[in-house]
């Protein structure tokens, strides 16, 4: 009988499908828009319903988990209280490496953490060096000493004669290379009072910062 019921249901669905197709083929554009709008609203309502059901189930699961955690925590507290008066329970807990929280931090762990902190705060770790190219200070452990002749792509660091004269001889020497308009602009530029050409090292068209040069690299 179940097979007959399934067949009848299938026949009924096929007939309904045929009627729907016939009705849609004869409907006007306005009727089509109304039908599509109803379908859209039904779809939105179904999605909202599923979302609400999922949210409700999630809240139920969270509540159940919280209840289980509270129940488990109550059992642990009761077990800790009973351990002081029941030697058998205490021995069983010790055998299973059970301990009530909080507990004292082991001395070995504290000494290891202190030693690691001292190592990270040592001068060898905190010491910094200045980059001869960009004048930025970085940890010495992350820096690398390179001879000037071995700097990769050093030709990209070459500067113009005007910039070289400005850095090595000061702004007054630059005016001879500029026209009248540029000289007037230069006079309005505020040169820092701390400007010192000795802070720079000129070598084969390349300007480097003196603070970043090691004696063996010069």
How big a fraction of the residues is strand? 5-15%
Largest sheet geometry: 2 strands, antiparallel
The radius of gyration is 41 Å
- Spatial order of strands in the largest sheet: 1-2
Helix content: 55-70%
What does the overall shape look like?
flat
End-to-end gap: 101 Å
The SS-based structural class is: mainly alpha
Number of strands: 4
Number of helices: 7
Overview of the structural elements:
- It is a single chain.
- The chain has 218 residues and is mainly α.
- The chain has a domain at 146-217.
- The protein is 57% helix and 6% strand.
- It contains 7 helices and 4 strands.
- It has helices at residues 2-26, 29-83, 87-95, 107-120, 123-126, 161-169, 180-187, and strands spanning 128-130, 137-139, 200-203, 206-209.
- A two-stranded antiparallel ribbon has the order 1-2. Strands 3-4 form a two-stranded antiparallel ribbon.
- The longest helix has 55 residues, at 29-83.
Give a quick summary of the entry.
With 218 residues, the chain is mostly helical. It has seven helices and four strands, in the order αααααββααββ.
Draw up the topology in text.
Blueprint: H1 2-26, H2 29-83, H3 87-95, H4 107-120, H5 123-126, E1 128-130, E2 137-139, H6 161-169, H7 180-187, E3 200-203, E4 206-209
Antiparallel strand pairs: 1-2, 3-4
